[in-house]
Amino acid sequence: MARTSAAMQKYLRATTSYLRNLENTGASAATVTNYARRLELFRQFWAERSQQDHQLIQDPGFTDIQAWRDALIDSDRKASTVRQYLKELGMFFEWASDPSMGECRFYESNPVSRRLVPDTRKLDRRPYDILLTDDEVMALWRNNPPAGRKRPEFWPRNYAIVILLLTTEIRNAELLSLRLSDLDFENGELTVERGKGGKFRVVEFPAIAQTAVRFYLSSGLRPQALSQDDLLFGTQGEPKGRQGQPSGFWKRGTSQWLSSVVERHVKAVTGVANIRTHDLRHVGARLDLNNGMPIEELQSKLGHESMSTTQIYSGKLVARRSRAKAKAVYQECSRQAERNAEILLIR
C-alpha cells in the first residue's frame, strides 16, 4: 500500500473535502451518504484494477473511468444507473479540479469525459406516441398503491405528482415552482406563474388532479404550518432556527429528485422503466390530441410558440379504433376522480 499511497491518499482527501462541501452547501444527509458510497465504489475498483495490472496507483485517467463504466455495464447495471454513477463521479472531479481553487485544487483536469456517459434517452426508447400504452395510463389513474411498495407513506405525494403531470402537461420546473395558491379548485384552473421564458399561462385543473392533490394534502406530507403561498411540493430540510418555522423547513426539490419520483412511481405501477417527467408531458399531449382537442388549444396548453413543436410533442393521430380507446382512457379518468372523491369523503 505504501508505494501507491500518494495518489490514493490524495483521492481520499479530495473526497472528504468534497463531501464536507456538499454538507455545507445544503445537500441532505442522504445525498451525501449516497455520493460517498459511489465515490468509494470507484476507489475500490480503481485500486483493484491497478493491483491486478501490477501498476503503481496514479491519478485516475480516461482509461480508468472507461474500465469502470464497462465493469458496471458487465455487472448488468441499468444504463440509467451507469449514467448516474458517472455523472456523480464527474461532478466530484469537476469540483476537485476547479481552477478557482488555485493551489488548493486536487487535480489538473476532470478525467470523466462526456463521451463515456451513456445517453439513456437513446437507449431502448419508445417513440413519443407510444411511451405508455392506454392501458398503462389507465393504471396510473388508479389510486391503488402496489403491494410491497417501498416507502408506502409517500404514495399520496407521488400519485398527485404523476396525475398533475399527465393531466396538466406542465414542465418539470413548472411543477417544482407551483404554490398551493396557484391552484383554483373552484374554477378548475391551474396557473403557471413562471413558465419557460418567464411566461404566464392558465391550464385546466381537472377533477382527477384536484382529488389527487386533496388526497396528498390530507396525508400530512405537506406540513400543516405552511401557507397557501408556500410550495405545493417540496422536501424537508433541517430547521435553521427561523421563528415560526415548522419542524424541518420546506424547500424546493431538485429536477433530479422529481424525475426520480416519477420514474419509480411509473415503474412500480406499470412496469415501464425510464419514464421521465417530460415523457408524461408527451403522453398527456398525445391523449389530448387523440381525444379530440384542437391542436391550437393543445399548443396553448403546452405553452409552445411554434405549432411544429406541438406536433412533435403530441406524436401522431392514431387510427380511429385507437382514438376510441383514448376516449375510454378519459372515461376511466373520470371514474377514478369519483372514486377519489368518495375516499376523501370517508376520511
What's the SSE blueprint?
Blueprint: H1 5-24, H2 29-52, H3 62-74, H4 79-96, H5 134-141, H6 155-168, H7 172-177, E1 183-184, E2 189-192, E3 201-204, H8 207-218, E4 235-236, E5 250-251, H9 255-270, H10 277-290, H11 295-302, H12 307-313, H13 320-346
Antiparallel strand pairs: 1-2, 2-3, 4-5
Helix pairs in contact: 1-2, 2-4, 5-13, 6-8, 6-9, 6-10, 8-13, 11-12
Describe the structure.
Helix content is 54%, strand content 4%. The protein contains 13 helices and five strands. With 347 residues, the chain is mainly alpha-helical. It has helices spanning 5-24, 29-52, 62-74, 79-96, 134-141, 155-168, 172-177, 207-218, 255-270, 277-290, 295-302, 307-313, 320-346; strands at residues 183-184, 189-192, 201-204, 235-236, 250-251. It is elongated, with a radius of gyration of 23 Å. A hairpin with an 8-residue loop joins strand 2 and strand 3 (201-204). The strands form two sheets. The chain has a three-stranded antiparallel beta sheet, with no helix packed on it. Helix 2 packs across helix 4 and helix 5 (134-141) runs parallel beside helix 13.
